[in-house]
Amino acid sequence: MDFKKHLENAWNSMLKNLVPLLLMTLVMSVLSVVTFGILAPVMLAGYYQSILLMLRSGRTPSINDLFSEMRLFLPLLVFSIVIFFATMIGFMLLVVPGIVVVCLLAFGCLYMLPLMTDKQMGLVDAVKKSWAMATQGNMADHIVVVILYLGLMAIGSSVFIGILFTQPFATIFVLSVFEERMAGGPGAAATPPPPPPMAGGDA
To answer: By the number of CB atoms within 10 A of the CB, which of 35, 76, 96, 125 ranks highest?
Structure first.
């Protein structure tokens, strides 16, 4: 996988749409805090789909896009609650299990949201497909993608207003990789060859 290409694509795409991306990220962050995280998952789904459309057709992201996937409110809220409690329990058990939960979530569910919004998959099917995309093909490439994504998000969270810049950049990077994977590019899983013909041919 050409990571340099995806990083450059993310950087150039962010610069072209910097103001709308910053505004959308700011509104999402503020509303997530104000609603105690209740709207965060479904707004993130709209955020992902908005940026995916930006990458594909050059469509300008809009704040209204944050609410474009409200149909996913309940399943994403339930999923987030389950993950929250699993993570908290893990951190209470000597911290390490909590870190494992976070790493597994990032590894296996990285493509879950675009699969739900763009491919109209249900929650369970999207998780299964995302896990399959993570474990098939060149797994080392996927691990690097996860590390870069988590690293960018960590940097943004540690610097004042940094998340306004690292969130869109990291999201564009992941979606650029997602598009390549779905198109069967270098990072996609290899398609198994068809079975050999039956001996003897047709009767």
So the answer is: 76
End-to-end CA distance of the chain: 46
Q: For the whole model, what pTM was predicted?
A: 0.85
By the 10 Å C-beta count (0-12 exposed, 13-18 middle, 19+ buried), 159 is classed as exposed
Q: Report the C-alpha gap between 155 and 167 in whole angstroms.
A: 10
Tokens of 122: 């249900």
pLDDT of the residue at 22:
96
Q: Which residues of the chain have pLDDT under 70?
A: 185-203
Largest Cα separation within the chain, whole Å, is 74
